[in-house]
Amino acid sequence: MGQAIRGSTRAPGVLALALVAACPMGVAAASGTGATDPPGGAGQAGAVTQAVREDPVVMVTPADGSTGVPTDTTVLVGVRNGTLKKVAVRAVKGARGTLTGVLSADRTQWRSRGTAAPGTVYEVTAVVADEAGGTGDFSSSFTTVRAEQGFAVQSLLPHKDYTGLTVGVGMPIMITFDHDISDRLSVERNLVLRTSKPVHGAWHWFDDRTVHFRPKRFWPAGTRVRLEARLSGVRGGKGLYGRRNHVLDFRIGRSQITKGSVHTHQLTVRRDGETVRRIPMSAGQGGVWKYHTTSGIHLAMSREPVTIMISPGIAPGQPGYYRKTVYNTVRISNSGEYVHSAPWSVGSQGRANVSHGCVNISPANARWFIDNTLIGDPIIITGSPRRLEPTNGWGHWQEDWRQWTRWSALKGFTTEPLGRSGGQ
């Protein structure tokens, strides 16, 4: 019988494993007793010979004893002249946890999934079967690169408290980190999106800490969405690694798109392709640039029962100053634009533009509009010479697809499928 493998219990006839880690593949020679003379003397006919059988050869990456291994390195375990019965990669010093993986159909290769933790010693163990059916144990270890500092998600939208978890078809996913990210590709690769309906979209970096996702076209109504931010151990830059993972589940509601024209002074609200309300409006009076309502694809950013509106850039006592309490407002930009109740301009609504840039509607229509709007609903205004800037509020849809993907590391992808139980 061959020499026992470290920590193994082998059935008779199992031969020693040969370990090959990050070097050319080798084959362990079989060991045996050789031929013996039969009774009656040497050289007689019928001499017995013993066949040579090759031992399993195990190959592992990273090599045994490796240090400073990048956290996104794929752990590979392969075997020749045998099969893998079981493979485990477990943290034994530093962080806790295991790396999951996938075994090939012929059970000769195993590949890890996910990202390792920085500054951690991992032990790779495998149970290997030879061609005769006996088994042996194998182990090796490696150490990942040490993190100098960590990064985390500082804010994430949609959020149950700020937007609700059922949102409009224009809603972006918005992530802000607490440190500057220089390895954008590594981070994007680990922001996994799963949806109940296939969606093509892309992440877009507004700066080193802010990345947003939007589809190429509006979300399909009724889509369930799950964001899996698998950031634990992910490299964000030199010496910078993610601290933890995040999961966000939300839904896209019915498709409601509101369109309005500063020329016709009308808002038309369409839900799932059907017109559900026509609303007379009064847009910005113009004259001064800031008094033009911006044209473009706005999104409903907030619903506010009461908003205090103050004249921008005009102090109390100066001509044009105002401070007004306004009810039932839906914010559509960061430059002070709302769709809101304006009882003082009802006579002009549907006829003329008299506001300071907001979209004025009647109190009854404002009540209906705030009650029937989801955060992320598109509100599209046309006819104004002043264009909504992409960075003014949630002006994400003001960039065409080429402009949007210019600031994406992955340049676009189709979401992964979401199971029935996901996003509930």
UniProtKB/TrEMBL annotation:
Alphabetical list of PANTHER family matching this protein: L,D-TRANSPEPTIDASE (PTHR30582), L,D-TRANSPEPTIDASE YCIB-RELATED (PTHR30582:SF2)
CDD domains, per the entry: LDT_IgD_like_2 (cd13432), YkuD_like (cd16913)
Matches recorded under Pfam families: Big_10, YkuD
Signal peptide (residue range): 1-29
Record protein name field: Ig-like domain-containing protein
InterPro entries according to UniProt: Big_10 (IPR041280), LD-transpeptidase (IPR050979), LD_TPept_cat_dom (IPR005490), Transpep_catalytic_dom (IPR038063)
Protein keywords: Acyltransferase, Cell shape, Cell wall biogenesis/degradation, Peptidoglycan synthesis, Signal, Transferase
UniProt pathway annotation: Cell wall biogenesis; peptidoglycan biosynthesis
Organism encoding this protein: Planomonospora alba
Catalytic machinery residues: H340 (proton donor/acceptor), C358 (nucleophile)
Highest taxon of source: Bacteria
SUPFAM superfamilies: L,D-transpeptidase catalytic domain-like (SSF141523)
Domain L,D-TPase catalytic: 256-382
Keyword Iron annotated: no
The keyword Acyltransferase appears for this protein: yes
